[in-house]
Amino acid sequence: MPSPVKRDASADPVSFPPLIACEYCDAVHQQTDLAEGERALCLRCGGLLYRESQRAYHRQLPLVVTALILFMLASACPIVELDLKGVRTATSLWGAIQALSSGEMVPVAILVFATTILFPLTEMLMLLYLLVPMAQHRMPPGFGRLVRGIQRARPWGMLEVFMIGVLVTLVKLSTIAQVQPGVALWSFAALMIVLAVMLSFDPRNLWRHLRAQTPR
After folding, report:
1. Which listed residue, 107, 168, 185, 193, has the most CB atoms within 10 A of its CB?
2. In terms of domains, do 72 and 172 share one?
3. 19 lies in the same domain as 104
4. Which residues span the domain enclosing 161?
């Protein structure tokens, strides 16, 4: 359990313990180290403040690299191949966005691009930018702004919604054409699993791990 904040005017601001605000009731607490499996709860409302994340942090960098590789495959390779009366057609995510933008559905194309490519890719690149220097016990420039940027970009990444839409479409198309899943579809499926593990890590915990790793 984190202890309530006791302000001391004579405290050195450099050595003052790290603070965390409850996102439910705005109560401010001092952060303390947790043992494996423990969680810190707000003393006022009982809301979750943070949890022990040492193991989750150490697997973030391999997960980000894996997610980037899968994301590139999912974006560039064909999602599906259709065989309709001997005519074979294949399309990729980029091809689908271009097809939407060439007609009267430009707003839809922009929305698909933003939610399936721009925001997920931005979040992964920002995490990579932060985690590589932190693995070398260095503080990357712009650390605070990027952590806040990750938190703002995360809700806009909707790859899982796109994946569900693709699966529903394939089920409907299978009644009129022969459907063969492409490399991108399997890459998307693997990417969903990797992203689910990544999203379980709260980016705010990067502050605690940075303080623990960087020399003072």
Report:
1. 185
2. yes
3. no
4. 54-213
